[in-house]
Design goal:
The structure holds 2 protein chains of 2 kinds. By secondary structure, chain A is α/β, with parallel strands linked by helices. Chain A is about 45% helix and about 10% strand. A 5-stranded parallel beta sheet of chain A has the order 4-3-2-1-7. Chain A has a two-stranded parallel ribbon with strand order 5-6. In chain B, α20 runs antiparallel to α22. In chain B, strands 14-15-16-13-12-18-19-34-29-28 form a 10-stranded mixed beta sheet, with helices on both faces. In chain B, strands 9-8-7-10-11 form a 5-stranded parallel beta sheet, with helices on both faces. By secondary structure, chain B is an alpha/beta fold. Classes of the chains: A alpha/beta, B alpha/beta. Chain B: This is Aldehyde dehydrogenase family 16 member A1.
């Protein structure tokens, strides 16, 4: 994690001065995807980089220790070893940025990662995820318990009723959405959030992280997100401390694309290990 | 295996730097197409390649590598004649087809483009150096949309455009810096309404030739679209071919002006779209980040041909400059065929032009900021931002070239308009403000052909675009684009040239001196004497008069001999009256024209008597007065319908089409029908909110002066100014006033002096919120 956002005096004029032109932002969202593309080894390197930004996530009602364990191993070995070797990247210790689970599964994840012998952080959604409509007391307690269990990052669902009434909260990282909404990480929304992050940095010198979550499934999507960050915020944001992708199925598509890059063939379902 | 070992270290390195790599688009198909022509391009005429012998040829080069791609024949007059002949032959059939058949053909061409779009976009990008992404994602789809939109127009032509007929053969001249899309904007409406086209493209531009080939290969109707390549100097040759009814030109201001001068007096329609500079007005209430993207769209994305003047409100100057410079740092410049560049190269000429401008700006004290990922080799020029350029410096007066942005601050909206309008150019502009009222007000105030609000450079086939002031007088797209190629049914073919020997240096220079002309047997009461300027009759500056004779050669009376000073006074008076008249509601304008009509009616017998003295039969004279009254009433009624329309395009926003008055018009009336012509020319100009300086019939000016007596009491002073005198001399004087927006001339010699005569007494201005 980056240095904590120590916060500043709340100055609502910053917010009231913000102007967002919706059609213009939509146009920008379209353009930013069309104007950049990476091919060949650039694509492979970018995809491997994307792997290191993934918060490999399982947030299902039926999560148990066994599928959490599988997930943790996949986090440690996200890309088949032989593929990495072919790219001469096997010694780069490529893992996902974190594993993200429900509070009740934090213990399982910590144990599995320890067994795998790695120090990938465990992130937990907390505070009445995904609605956040529970009492402050239980929400705080939820965070405390998750941290006690070994979670080192907490995705907090903010109290949106406070936001909608103009009472803002601060954070080190902002996330597009819970991933459980009908519409999740979209480019136009991300553009507005990234511009806010940049403005905040210019005003205070604090770098706030960004995490799009939900609906990012293909390698192509991942590349577009990386290039969006590069274009709007710059290279200094392209590190796991400041950029994460919350995703569960993205990794397998990236692995497929890497397989294709290395071998020139498209992998069958059974060619790649499941998570 | 060799490839794998080469790959591996690079991937490691890229993994750390996360840099962009090359993303080349294969141009194999473009080369293969050039091979089908043996790398030797001719002209495409009458559905066939035309490759005459003994012609000069110029190389077509890749602007980045300098590699010779093909050689292109330069047309000569015979080739132009052959193309026009083909277009004339094709016209007979094409113009008489039912609209539905033409629609079908245009749709087929749209599909043809769709089938060969990769060839089109790679060829265009390869040869022009523009970013392939822009050609592929914008130009090619827009070309298809244009064909489809105009197919629909052709389909409904019989009902929607009843009473209009196609003009005939259209000559189109496209200069080097313009993409094939500029050609599409013009040929689509021309073909849709039944015209046939000869396009003169600059040498070494294969994309228009490819389009012509695609059209030709549809089989039916060869010869409706002919493309010849040759220098712009062939323009007059094309224009003077018998059968060519109209020439449409787009390009540089100077070239357009030269063409206008060469073609003056040939009775040929000429439409001009000149210059490429655009303007962006950024207020403090703007979404600055989005506005910065607007600047990128306008200049640094290979979308437009020209540079940008950027006006920034002082209160957000620093913030905007920071964001703009940060954004510039992320721009990528490179080979156009690379899928991940923002900007390609435009060849040596464009680069040198930019370089010269920057050097001159620097020498005048301007700050120059350049950034972006730009290859170091020579054909490229980096995105450039110029600030602190003193407004009075010579550099600030000239058109900003690609890829330059010249930023200057403004304090208030009023000042912004003054700065924005303080240039001879009036092409396009955008206003950035989240305050609706402010944005609209600025949009209304800008003297530009098209104004976008919170966007820049959006185009749609259904939305007419054009320019005002020096940027030209033609429209393309939408219904206005169709009328560019139509004429009222039954219009006679154009007259042969009358004025080849006209000398502009001496035309109307001397005023013949006039002396007393014998016994005055004038009528009673005596006709009004003096020039009607600023709402009253006044003595001419020269203090001399000219005699007017009746049909028997007797002296009818004297009228004032007007001169340069009188015209100056009249133009000034007209300008002073203009804001008040524009501000009047259409209803008020209609009422005043109605009152004038009533006054004319009361004067009927006196007017008829005057006309009778000039040899008109009483019955005819009465009819002329009656018709004049009717004309005034009719135009009064039309003042109410100004033609503003609200159109909803596929642009996430409505399009407001405004009709604005031109401003001050100069009108030179013909000798015939002294009253009716005067009224018929005056009424539409006034109805649409213009003010006028008018030279009445030379042989019979008195009825017009008679009408002025009523004008004096009914209309605001300065609205109508009537100057009598030597027609050619007065015409010359009026043409020398650059703030006279149009000059309608009906006179001794078929000249069309500058500023350009406009057939349409008003122009449209678009706002796209």
């Amino acid at each position: 994690m980056a240095a904590h956002n120590l916060g500043t005096e709340l100055d609502l004029s910053w917010i009231s001065k913000v102007q967002v032109n919706h059609p213009a932002v939509l146009r920008r969202a379209q353009q930013v995807q069309a104007r950049r593309t990476v091919k060949k080894e650039w694509q492979a390197a970018w995809l491997l980089k994307a792997v290191t930004f993934i918060d490999l996530t399982t947030l299902s009602g039926d999560d148990t220790s066994s599928n959490v364990q599988r997930l943790c191993y996949k986090a440690k070995y996200p890309i088949r070893e032989d593929l990495l070797k072919a790219l001469n990247m096997h010694d780069k210790d490529i893992t996902t940025a974190a594993v993200c689970v429900y509070p009740a599964r934090v213990c399982d994840a910590v144990r599995a990662l320890k067994a795998a012998g790695c120090n990938i952080p465990v992130a937990s959604v907390a505070t009445g995820f995904p609605a956040g409509q529970t009492h402050l007391k239980t929400r705080l307690e939820e965070i405390r318990l998750a941290v006690e269990d070994g979670a080192s990052e907490i995705d907090v669902v903010i109290n949106r009723s406070l936001v909608l009434t103009g009472q803002w909260e601060g954070s080190d990282f902002i996330k597009t959405s819970t991933g459980k909404e009908t519409v999740n990480a979209t480019f136009p929304v991300a553009i507005v959030m990234l511009r806010a992050i940049r403005d905040f940095f210019w005003k205070t010198g604090n770098k706030i992280g960004f995490k799009p979550a939900g609906g990012i499934r293909s390698a192509k999507d991942a590349l577009a997100w990386l290039s969006l960050i590069k274009e709007e915020l710059g290279d200094e944001w392209l590190k796991p401390e400041l950029f994460r992708i919350g995703a569960s199925t993205l990794l397998s598509d990236i692995e497929r694309q890497i397989y294709h890059h290395v071998t020139g063939r498209y992998a069958a379902y059974h060619d790649l290990p499941m998570s | 295996m060799a490839a794998a070992t080469r790959t591996a270290p690079r991937a490691r390195e890229i993994f750390t730097t996360l840099e962009y790599g090359p993303a080349p688009e294969s141009h194999a198909c473009a080369l293969a197409w050039l091979d089908t022509q043996d790398r030797h391009l001719g002209h495409y005429v009458n559905g066939k390649w035309l490759k005459p012998e003994h012609r000069n040829s110029v190389p077509c080069q890749d602007p980045i590598t300098g590699e010779n791609l093909a050689s292109c024949l330069q047309a000569q007059a015979e080739d132009v004649a052959a193309a026009v002949e083909a277009a004339r032959t094709a016209l007979e059939n094409w113009s008489t087809l039912p609209g539905a058949r033409r629609a079908q053909h245009l749709t087929r061409l749209a599909k043809m483009i769709q089938k060969h779009q990769r060839l089109l976009w790679t060829l265009e990008s390869l040869v022009t150096g523009r970013a392939v992404r822009e050609v592929r994602d914008r130009d090619v789809p827009l070309a298809q949309q244009l064909l489809q939109y105009h197919a629909v127009q052709a389909h409904t032509q019989e009902e929607a455009l009843a009473g209009w007929e196609p003009m005939g053969v259209i000559g189109l001249i496209v200069p080097p810096t313009f993409s094939f899309l500029e050609m599409m904007w013009r040929i689509c409406p021309a073909l849709a309404v039944g015209c046939t086209v000869v396009v003169l493209v600059p040498p070494a531009s294969p994309a228009p030739l490819l389009l012509a080939q695609l059209a030709g290969e549809l089989g039916s109707f060869p010869g409706i679209l002919n493309v010849i390549s040759g220098p712009t100097s062939l323009g007059p040759v094309l224009a003077s071919q018998p059968g060519v009814q109209k020439v449409a030109f787009c390009g540089a201001v100077e070239e357009g002006r030269a063409l206008r001068r060469t073609l003056a007096g040939q009775g040929l329609e000429l439409s001009l779209a000149l210059g490429a500079e655009s303007l962006l007005l950024l207020t403090e209430a703007a979404d600055v980040d989005s506005a910065v993207e607007g600047v990128v769209d306008a200049t640094w994305s290979d979308r437009s041909q020209g540079g940008l003047r950027l006006l920034i409100q002082e209160s957000v100057w620093d913030e905007t400059m920071t964001r703009l410079q940060a954004r510039m740092g992320r721009l990528r410049v490179g080979r156009g065929l690379d899928g991940a560049v923002d900007m390609g190269a435009r060849g040596a000429a464009a680069r040198d032009l930019a370089q010269r401008y920057v050097r001159e700006a620097q020498s005048q004290g301007a700050q120059v900021f350049q950034a972006g990922d730009v290859p170091s080799d020579s054909p490229f020029y980096p995105p450039t931002l110029i600030s602190d350029l003193p407004p009075a410096s010579p550099c600030a007066q000239t058109e900003v070239p690609w890829p330059l942005v010249v930023a200057s601050p403004f304090r208030t909206a009023k000042e912004a308009l003054a700065v924005a309008n303080g240039t001879p150019r009036g092409g396009s502009a955008s206003v950035w403000s989240e305050r609706l009222g402010q944005a609209l007000e600025l949009g209304y105030g800008l003297r530009m052909g098209i104004v976008w609000i919170n966007a820049h450079g959006l185009r749609d086939p259904a939305v007419p675009t054009g320019g005002c002031k020096e940027s030209g007088s033609s429209w393309h797209g939408g219904p206005d684009g169709l009328y560019e190629y139509l004429q009222p049914s039954g219009t006679p073919a154009r007259q042969p040239s009358l004025s080849e020997n006209l000398n502009y240096d001496t035309f109307g220079l001397a005023v013949p001196s006039t002396l007393p002309a014998g016994p005055e047997t004038g009528p009673s009461p005596a006709p009004p004497y003096g020039l009607f300027v600023g709402g009253r009759f006044q003595a001419p500056g020269a203090r001399s008069s000219r005699p007017i004779q009746d049909s028997h050669g007797n002296l009818h009376g004297y009228v004032a001999e007007g001169g340069a000073k009188d015209i100056r006074g009249a133009v000034e008076a007209a300008h002073q009256a203009a804001p008040g008249w524009v501000g009047q509601s259409p209803g008020a304008r209609a009422a005043l024209l109605g009152a004038l009509a009533a006054a004319l009616e009361r004067r009927e017998s006196a007017l008829a008597a005057r006309l009778e003295r000039h040899g008109v039969e009483l019955k005819v004279a009465k009819a002329e007065v009656e018709l004049s009254v009717r004309r005034l009433r009719a135009w009064g009624a039309r003042a109410q319908a100004q033609g503003h329309t609200l159109q909803v395009a596929e642009l996430r926003g409505p399009v407001l089409r405004l009709r604005e008055p031109l401003g001050v018009l100069a009108i030179v009336c013909p000798d015939e029908w002294p009253l009716l012509a005067f009224v018929s020319l005056l009424a539409p100009a006034l109805a649409h909110g213009n003010t006028v300086v008018l030279v009445p019939s030379g042989t019979c000016p008195i009825p017009a002066l008679e009408v002025c007596q009523d004008v004096a009491t009914l209309l605001p002073a300065g609205l109508v100014n009537v100057v009598t005198g030597d027609r050619d001399h007065l015409t010359r004087c009026m043409a020398l006033h650059q703030d006279v927006q149009a000059l309608w001339y009906f006179g001794s010699v078929q000249i069309s002096p500058e500023p350009t005569s406009a057939a349409n007494p008003f122009f449209a201005e678009e706002d796209w919120p």
